[in-house]
User: Fold these one by one.
Assistant:
Number 1:
Amino acid sequence: MFALIAALLFVLALVFEIADVAVGGVVTVATLGTAGLLCVALHLMGIGAGWSPLKK
C-alpha cells in the first residue's frame, strides 16, 4: 500500500515540476519527494504489507 502511495506522490511531484505549479509554501516538489521516499522506506520495512515476521 505504501508503494502505491509513494508512486502517486512521485507522479504528483513530477507533474508539479513539469507544469511549474506552486501550491503554497507547504506543498512543494521537495515535500512531495520526501513524503514519497518516506513511503518507500515504510514499504521496504514491511509496514502496511499485511503480514509480520513476528506472527506465529
Number 2:
Amino acid sequence: MPNLTTVHQAATAPPKLQAATQDDAIRDAAKQLEASFLTEMLKSAGLGKSREGLGGGGEGEDQFSSFLVRAQAEQITEAGGIGLAESLYHAMKDSSND
C-alpha cells in the first residue's frame, strides 16, 4: 500500500512554483488591461464602425464588430503591444510584494 504521507507531500507545490504562478497571473491581468485600453483606443479611432455604400455588413456587422476590435487589440498586445502591459505588470508586482 502506498505511503499517503509521501503522496501528499509530493502534491504540494514548492514555494518557487507558486511564485511563478502568481507572476503569470499578474502578467495575464496586465495584458488584459492593455487589451482593454487598446480596444477603446481602436474604437475611438473608428475601427469597427460600419462601412457605408455597397457591400456593407448591415446589422450583423454592427453587432459583431466589437468582437473583432477586441480580438485585434488582443493580438496587438500578444505581439508586444505598446508597452503598457509591462508597466502595469511591474506596478502590480511591486504592490503585491508590499
Number 3:
Amino acid sequence: MVTTLRSFSGFSVDDADAALRFYRDTLGLPARENAMGGLDIDLTDGSTVFVYPKGAAHTPASYTVLNLVVPDIDEAVTELEAAGASLIRYAEFDQDERGVSRSTDPSKGPTIGWIADPAGNVVALIQD
C-alpha cells in the first residue's frame, strides 16, 4: 500500500491567466497562482485541483474535469449568464432553454448543466 500525505487531481489549460480569471472570477472558486506557474483551486474538505499550463500543446479534456455540486442550479446559471457565460448544449441530452438537463428520476441521473472553461475543458454544475 502506498502511504500518501494528501492527494489532488489536475488538468491542463492553454492559458493560465485566462483560467485563473474563469475559475476565480466567473465561478467564484478560491483559485490562485502557484510557484510552478500553474494554479491551485481550493475545493471542499481541503481538496485542491492543480491546473497546469501547456500552451499550444493543450488539448481540451474529453471528459468533465470538475463537478461542482450547487444548491440551486437556476441561481448558478443566472450568475454565470450575468458573467457572460452560457451552458453547453449536447444533442444527446434533453436540456431546457437555459441548457439545464432536469431529472425527475434520480436513478436516471442528476439535474445538471455544463460549461466550458476558456481552454475548452468541461465543468459540470450538479444540483444537490
